[in-house]
């Protein structure tokens, strides 16, 4: 049995959801009072209630990646909206979720991608793993005849003015070319090259770019928020960096995924800066939520950022998510999300994300390897923290 969608024939596959079931009301229609009853998440042996959109039809969706953090959240959201999901990854970042068609392969390999597309068509591609322009160019070129729509998860790092100046959809991006050679060392400008590769090989009329802000939530694989939760859970005095009133923009990966799937279902095009609204939380509120979630007796000791810089504490990594109020960092939490909000982006309270992340950490157990941003370890050494606390008390 075949059906037509946007002029191409798609093979029907057995639906993952029970026939005739209707999804719950769309998240964007959920009252503010019900925002605590959001996406299901298995914590402490139970599944929390969800709130999904009423879908008009089932889509066939390919997720490039899909086994860790944001990719996992996108797969979960698509499955629980009743869509059919194919994942394509190497199988090394984590297990695929039940209900997907998992295809193993390396996105840098033309042969693996050709094996993926052989005999398959999708309504949309969601690319959560594109980091190199050459890899995005290859996937966009080969997938173009096999899908109607390509959603690419870029980053706020793609904007050349960030974090010194506020950015929006019209801000300039780094001058990284679409034909940048493969296997480049990690760099912010690569995401801008990935965007150009997508547009060059797939076209703007069938693609959407989401410039992602700072993600938090369960299954975080870098470990910025988990590091703070685990440190605070140890108790005692804990360095709290800088100004507790410093505004932040933290978006839960599940909210990002829900908004991204909304755009995919609508066939949206263009660019969306996708993060929490500016001023939605502060450093003080976020760290207080970490203390409350863990139930710890930890005492937050606020240390002036000039003292931290004088002690050569590295912003962002030694004290994760701390950015000093300096010209080169002054707009890190000032991205303009007006367009995304108008398109339906909603973000849960940061305290909810913190609680869910702590519940996940408790279920996960001790981490298998140290948290790190690339090759840079996260977190301040205990002895260095102790000296700073002694100095602050003196």
Named at the architecture level, the CATH assignment of the domain at 224-248 and 281-332 and 370-393 is Alpha-Beta Complex
Strand order of the largest sheet: 7-6-5-8-9-10-15
Q: Give the CA-based shape.
A: globular
Largest sheet: 7 strands, parallel
| Intertermini distance | 77 Å
Percent strand equals 15-25%
State the helix count: 11
CATH class of the domain at 224-248 and 281-332 and 370-393: Alpha Beta
Could you name the CATH topology of the domain at 224-248 and 281-332 and 370-393? UDP-galactose 4-epimerase, domain 1
Low-confidence stretches: 1-56
Overall pLDDT, averaged? 88
Helix content: 25-40%
Structural class: alpha/beta
How many beta-strand runs? 21
Radius of gyration: 21 Å
Word description of this protein:
By secondary structure, the chain is of the alpha/beta class. It has a domain at 224-248 and 281-332 and 370-393: UDP-galactose 4-epimerase, domain 1 (Alpha-Beta Complex). 30% of the residues lie in helices and 19% in strands. The chain has helices at residues 69-80, 110-117, 133-143, 190-201, 224-233, 253-266, 283-294, 305-310, 338-342, 350-364, 382-393, and strands at 2-5, 8-11, 42-43, 46-47, 60-64, 84-89, 101-104, 124-127, 150-155, 207-212, 214-216, 237-241, 247-248, 250-252, 270-274, 281-282, 299-303, 315-316, 319-320, 372-373, 376-377. The strands form 8 sheets. A 7-stranded parallel β-sheet has the order 7-6-5-8-9-10-15, sandwiched between helices. Strands 1-2 form a two-stranded antiparallel ribbon. It has a two-stranded antiparallel sheet with strand order 3-4. Strand 1 (2-5) and strand 2 (8-11) form a beta hairpin. The longest helix has 15 residues, at 350-364. The N and C termini lie far apart (77 Å).
